[in-house]
Amino acid sequence: MVFEAVHYTYASGVEALRDVNIEFRDGEIVALMGENGSGKTTLLKHMNGLLKPTKGRVLVDGVDTAKTSVAQVSMKVGLVFQNAEDMFFESSVYDEMAFALKNFGFTEEKIRRRIEWALKFFELEEYENTSPFLLSGGEKKRLAMAIIMAWSPPVICLDEPTIGQDSLQKEKMMHMIKMLNSQGRTVVLASHDVEFIAELKPRVVLLSAGEVLADGPCEEVLTDMRLLERASLTPPQVVALLKRLEDLGVDYRVLDVEGAVEKILKVIRK
Amino acid sequence: MKIVEVESLSFTYAGVKKPALSDINLQIDEGEFVLIAGPSGGGKSTLCRCLNGLVPQFYEGEYSGRVVVDGLEADKTPIHVLSQHVGMVFQNPHNQLFSLSVESDIAFPLENLGLPREEIRQRVEEALSTMRIEHLRDRSPFELSGGQQQRVAIASVLAMRPRVIVMDEPTSYLDPLSASNLFKTIDEVRSKLGLTVLLVEHRVDLAVARASRLVVVAEGRIIYNGPPRTFFEEQNPHLYGVAYPKVVKLSVRMRKALNSWSKTCINPEEFEEEVRKLRGGL
Fold first, then answer.
1. Which residue does chain A place closest to B176, by CA atoms?
2. In terms of DSSP bridges, do strands A55-60 and B21-29 run parallel, antiparallel, or are they unpaired?
């Protein structure tokens, strides 16, 4: 996916994206980060053609999204919304999953096999006949991912996948993202969950007021205090903690606990 | 004075076999800041609903035991009476806001109580200023940011002048900076007004430093009730879906590496002090 000088202005006049240039490479994990309102979700909605640029262009697999249909782009790019519930309207989990597959023209047999696979993968088999609206928050999120996975697009976009999830569910989400990625899929996630991203260690695109502030490895972006401040993001806990000890000569540019222990011990033992 | 007393409380939602809460006993003193943590589906939200009477008055089921809040029995006191004693703030502020202006959103429940105009005006002013949102009074709640919306929702609860505020994951939809600012304001309001705060929260790292007590609810039971520090020292938080704050994790590792490291730190200030002490002493 390639974003070329993309601008987007909502009908209300709000300029949500300003001159965004990003290249997403095959098989990457990329996190779009920034505070609420920085443009993360607007950017995601450009990836499956739900929104078209006001100026500039978005290419998916070489095709300009403005010159093709959302259904066409969706075959390649699956988008999981922040509120999973917004996606649901059928009365059973099975029908919910079958809907898109039918639209894509898969055969009954293929639809059944794909749904069975996806339900198993996301540990939802027991809910096949349950209404999607009766699932717990974490389960709804998994169903939303299962729906997308059932048609197996090469790119998966997740909007705030960790919202409202407890630490066990977050860990599962982390595994899932890594597994999807290890199968060769590109994963793009919009998130303000700094701790989650610091553990996942993807490439990070930092957004502020619709502009790209930085684009680089997680270890660089999330330890750059000046950048984070400009994006109104709090640094990861480990970084913030070590920063307090900067005057003792502690190097705060580290994201994980083990690395931090090393840096502190070095200073204490000096 | 005990402001919340829960005795042998059990509850099973109608049509469900498994109890949501089993034999809960909990006493809370006036002015406490209690953090309630635990896995999703463990019973945290049900416990909150028992405190403001929604269980069993709105959500039906099999209810036994006794819940007394600010001297009122929660299952027998009408919800509109109880709401003047226990305020409730939810995960998604969207569900709590509905008016065309912030001011009228805060005034609405007061009008329902039939309060005189002057009193309503005074309470709205107070709530706006306490939550530091005077500048938003004429704005529509729906054009505000998530953090601002949650401040409006809390202001409208404060205007009812409750003694206890129960918040069910109020920062879920907020970015980390707005969340941490909100916790700060909540704590200031608590000490200024002498409120009792019960906060259900997954963001343990941000909330724990302000809490005087941690209650962990899992599988419908209270599995821990005491000082936050002791929980992290004695239990495996991860087992109960409780996020392990990095400062705690780091200090546990430091303690293993250094015999002279004295304690499990639960906030950055303690951690910093410990490092400085050790560096000076060696």
1. A234
2. unpaired
